[in-house]
Each structure stands twice: as structure tokens, then as C-alpha cells.
Prior knowledge:
This protein is an all-alpha fold. Helices cover 74% and strands 2% of the residues.
Amino acid sequence: MSTTPPPQALPPTETRPEAGVPTADEGAFAWLRALGPRGRRAFGGAFGGYGLDSYDYFTLPLSMVALAAYFGLSSGQTGLFTTVTLVVSAVGGAAAGVLADRIGRVKALMITVITYAVFTVACGFAPNYETLLVFRALQGLGFGGEWAVGAILVAEYASPRHRGRTLGAVQSAWAVGWGLAVIVYTLVFQFLDDDIAWRVMFWTGALPALLVVWVRRQVKDAPEAAERRKESPEKGSFAAIFKPGTAAAPGLLKTTLFAVLLSTGVQGGYYTLATWVPTYLKTDRGLSVVGTGGYLAFLISGAFIGYLTGGYLTDKLGRKRNILLFAILSAICILAYANIPSGANTLVLVLGFPLGFCMSAIFSGFGSFLSELYPTAVRGTGQGFTYNTGRAVGAVFPTLVGFLADSWGVGGALVFGAIGYGLAALALIGLPETRGKELQ
């Protein structure tokens, strides 16, 4: 009697219903394959939007010295540019989150990109300090919403196993946009007079308009998540994310409060550095435009690798352990960077890499962590509010540095960034671990 041999076992696969494609779950780029064709287009839209968001943001810090000279500003006044951008970004981020839950992720993404591009260009036409301050504030409306919306869009396509790496890769677009801004800054300020160069920097912020055309044609919301969102009576509800828990049903109030504290700490530390390091290199360290660009290249290279590494570690270690690890390391790096002896500029160059690495790796888990803390119907609302409220409150840190820079020096005042990372570590006490969670 003949027997039929049993079928050979197939390699493990994971099917993403949204993408409709079973994909291999192993290998360095398994996270990208697992997204499927539609998910990869969503990834491209979110990556491009966040990279150009970064580019438009850094047109200001890189032009800060020229702006201060052109308008005759104090350190406190220039620090206020960052503060209003980040404070208004809380409004923009919260509004974009609600829109994402009510009209869809892709439509909200396009609105945010158009908003930050239009007002970045408008900054280049500002005739005085007050007008520039208003335009920069309005730019914050789009700037605040883009990351949260793009992260949710991709998170809803990503598999639980790879979500940290996938969102970490999206996060790395920030370093790409930052690097592009430094290249353009170096060229523009090298060949044009400072009085016109800062305007040209802002005018180049029109680039994101090209991305919107592609997103409109190619990118769609994840079908299953979109269906769940539409069916929920609480979609886009602020009341839902502030609902206290009961014995019968857990609420989201505690999660929201601690997520805001976490975002405040991490972003307070980050934006202190992002805003003031270019000025620190030019004023405290005495570097030229080309020299500043070279030193920033080390910082940005570390940031790019940090985003990718942090994405990998947040899947391996868990969301909370990854954030705690890099909160400690970032605080140590800031203190070391701000206390380098005068004349030791080579050490500034060397420490730029680990500084950029640590302060970026801590962000890699944010997209996945905040997405996993909230249900589908209020995912945009919760993530948009917590991330951007934290950004607004964290804006106090770069402002303090601005007002203290005249007496302490920029380097001395940078220590406030380390305090921010301490707050982030404290916030983890009140948040659950979400690694491997299915998005419901």
C-alpha cells in the first residue's frame, strides 16, 4: 500500500489583511515586506512628509544667527520663535488627530503638509520680527500634526512584531530632512549675503507641495482600521481620551496624563538641542558656516543611525526599556557636550555622534508606543494630543536656554535638556508595556 508523504512545512508568514499579501517574517527588511504594496506606499508618504516637515522646521534654527542680526534680536527673542512654533503645534497636532479620526489618515496628512509648507514660505517674506513670529506660529499648525497622522497611518499597516522598526524607519526621515536642510544652509549662506540668505532658506520650504500631489494619488488608509474607525460612535472624541477608569471598564485618563509627561520630557530635551546647538557651535565654539555644517553632519549621522537602531531595540527590549535606556544616555551626553573645555573642538566633533544617536533613538519607539496606547476610534486624537501637548510644554526648555544664554552661555544653559529626559524616565511609571499588541 502506498502512502502519500506529508506536505513540507512552509516558512512562517504573516498575512496583513489590509495589504492582502502574505510576506516572509524574517530578514533585515521583513518589516518593509510585511507592509505589502499599499502599506509601502503609506510608508513612503509618511516618510516624505516627516522628512520635509523636518526640513521646514530647521530652516529657522539654522538661520537664527542671521535673523538675530537682521532684526536686532536678543537671545530671548530668538528663543521665542521656537516656543511659539511648538506651543501652536499643540493646537495643530490635536486638531490633526481629530481630523485623522473623523475624515481619515491620508486626508489629514495632506492638510498638515500643505499648512506647514505655505507658512514656511511666508516666513521668507516677513518684513519685521512680529510678522515673522506670527508666520512661524502658523507654520506650527501643520508641523504639529504631520508626524502623529503619518505615524498612525503606517502603524495600522505594520505587523505587531515589526511595528517598532517600521515606525523607527519613519522617524529616521527627520534626520534625512535635517541633513538636507544643513546642506542647503551651507550652500545658501556660503554664496549669498546673510540678509537675503535667510529668506531664501524659508522659500525653499515650498518643496512639500510636490509630495502632496503623489500622496493624493497613491496612498490610502488601511482598510480594516478605517472600517473600525467609521463604525465607532466615539471617533475623534476628546472626552474619550480623558475618561477616568471604573471597576467595569478601564479609562484613558491616566494613560493620557502620563503620555503627555513622557512627551514633554523627551521633546523638551530634544528641542533644546535642536534649537540651540547651531548657535552654540557658532558663538561659544567660534565655528564658521562651513565648520558648523561639518560638525552638524556628525550629529545628524548619529541621529539617523539612532532612529534605526532605536526602532530595532524597541521591538527587542520593549517600548519602556528602550525609552528609559536612551533617556539616561541622552542626559549624560548633553552634560558632557555642554562642558567640553574651550579649544577642544575635536572633542565637540566626536561627541556629536553619540549625542545625535541617543537623542534620536529615544524617539524611535514613540510612533508605535503611542499608537498602541489608544483604540482605533481615538488613536489620532490621543496620539495627536499627547505628543503635541508635550511638545508645547517642552517648548519652555529652549526658551529658558534663550533667556539664560546671555549670562550662562549657550553651552551652560543646555543642561536644561538633561532635566527633560529625567521627566521622561519618571513618566514611564504610569504607562503599560505594549510591545506585540494588536491594534484594536
